[in-house]
């Protein structure tokens, strides 16, 4: 290490230079990360040899994605595919350390493709933010609620809201009250961005505007949790947040047998007992599925989404029905709150951007803003459909195998008993 850097490390260890100023003071992000790492080593005595330092563009995260970097975590990316969805083929990148996840999703893709493909529909596309404000009385809070929800005021609110972005367009406001506190859930379209920044800026415009007519309004927080971001909440399950998507496929009887190694009746029965009744018994909120979050999170990490938003993005109801006189399987996943973007946040980083490119949804869609993000949401739903199909099949097949084994074991036991019974005679 150069002498000059030695001095800086010593100053950081002695807390004479705050670690967080290194990037701006040195003007070299890699050097700053190296110095911080060395200071950490001296303070803790831990080498962290397995955590690489070189091979990452630290300038790309400065002021945007991660502070105080000392290295980067490596994650394997597997690719499952093709997913045949809405007549297009997708190769889906999944970053995970869970064995069998990519393979299992891949098997689901095969079953879907051999049955003619899946199709999807985007029912809603809007990001939400709900500030909390307090008034001297519930009556005053209700007055603002009435103002915001009056259709005659929508155009004015939209003009104010839309000022801060070319893409953020107000769709509506829904209010809830708790005593004299008012929660205003603004929903807006956000183009190809996931949209949290965009919606927050629009909401701030409206709060500033309202302050004139409602001077007694006390803004408690730009986010009052009625939004609801990164927390399990019925509002997202019922009203939707981000993209609300339904994806479906009809899996042919022979594919269920050949690829999924089970039968339609066993799948339908398992889905009712596990994903519907079992989740109801558990008091699930949006968790009427086998493992949607496995697939959602792996794609989120690979494509630079906010992994914490898997909480609501993984809300999913999986439905299975026997159709065509009980021969074939209709499967659907209903996912009301998939929060994804193809611009902003972690999507611009090199690895994540490469994964978005593989899906053909890298960056902004210039001809039709928002269609890249919507396509990504449908791919997430399509992959979840495949993951559900494969895991439910494995569990149904496992049940079948167990029943067979039980039968086999009992017949083996019987023959063993017969053998033993025969032995004395043989001797
Ligand atoms: P988020 O709101 O998801 O946090 P950012 O605000 O960080 O996202 O990123 C969105 C930025 O990208 C905005 O500055 C926006 O003007 C720009 N942008 C360019 N093209 C698009 C597009 N097609 N859709 C959405 N945003 C876009």
TrEMBL record:
Pfam families: HMG-CoA_red. Transmembrane segments: none annotated. GO terms for cellular component: endoplasmic reticulum membrane; peroxisomal membrane. Its EC number is 1.1.1.34. It is an enzyme of class 1 (oxidoreductase). Coiled coil: none annotated. It catalyses: (R)-mevalonate + 2 NADP(+) + CoA = (3S)-3-hydroxy-3-methylglutaryl-CoA + 2 NADPH + 2 H(+). Pathway: Metabolic intermediate biosynthesis; (R)-mevalonate biosynthesis; (R)-mevalonate from acetyl-CoA: step 3/3. This is 3-hydroxy-3-methylglutaryl coenzyme A reductase. It comes from Panicum miliaceum (Proso millet).
């Amino acid at each position: 290490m150069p002498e000059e850097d030695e001095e800086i490390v010593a100053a950081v260890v002695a807390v004479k230079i705050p670690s967080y100023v290194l990037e701006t003071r040195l003007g070299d992000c890699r050097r700053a990360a190296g110095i911080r790492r060395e200071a950490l080593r001296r303070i803790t005595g831990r080498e962290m040899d397995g955590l690489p330092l070189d091979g990452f563009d630290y300038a790309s995260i400065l002021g945007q994605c991660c502070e105080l970097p000392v290295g980067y975590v490596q994650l394997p990316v597997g690719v499952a595919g093709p997913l045949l969805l809405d007549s297009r083929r997708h190769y889906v990148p999944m970053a995970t350390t869970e064995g069998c996840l990519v393979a299992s999703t891949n098997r689901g893709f095969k079953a879907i493709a051999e049955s003619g493909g899946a199709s999807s529909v985007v029912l809603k596309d809007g990001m939400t933010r709900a500030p909390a404000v307090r008034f001297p009385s519930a009556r005053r809070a209700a007055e603002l609620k009435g103002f915001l929800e009056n259709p005659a005021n929508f155009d004015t609110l939209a003009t104010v809201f839309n000022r801060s972005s070319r893409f953020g367009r107000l769709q509506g406001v829904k209010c809830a009250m708790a005593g004299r506190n008012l929660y205003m859930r603004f929903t807006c379209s956000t183009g190809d961005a996931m949209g949290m920044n965009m919606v927050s800026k629009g909401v701030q415009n409206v709060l500033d505007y309202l302050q004139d007519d409602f001077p007694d309004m006390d803004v408690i927080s730009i986010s009052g949790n009625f939004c609801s971001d990164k927390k399990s909440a019925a509002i997202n399950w019922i009203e939707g947040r981000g993209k609300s998507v339904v994806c479906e496929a009809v899996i042919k009887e022979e594919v269920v047998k050949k690829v999924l190694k089970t039968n339609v009746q066993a799948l339908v029965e398992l889905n009712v007992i596990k994903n519907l009744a079992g989740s109801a018994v558990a008091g699930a909120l949006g968790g009427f599925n086998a493992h949607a979050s496995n697939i959602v999170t792996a794609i989120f990490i690979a494509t630079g989404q906010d992994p914490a938003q898997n909480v609501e993005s993984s809300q999913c109801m999986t439905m299975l029905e026997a159709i065509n006189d009980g021969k074939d399987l209709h499967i659907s996943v209903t996912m009301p709150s998939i929060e994804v973007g193809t611009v902003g946040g972690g999507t611009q980083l090199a690895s994540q951007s490469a994964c978005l490119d593989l899906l053909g949804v890298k960056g902004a869609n210039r001809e039709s803003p928002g269609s890249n993000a919507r396509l990504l949401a449908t791919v997430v739903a399509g992959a979840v459909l495949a993951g559900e199909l494969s895991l439910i099949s494995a569990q149904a097949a496992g049940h079948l195998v167990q029943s067979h084994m039980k039968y086999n074991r009992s017949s083996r036991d019987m023959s063993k008993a017969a053998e033993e019974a025969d032995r004395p005679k043989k001797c």
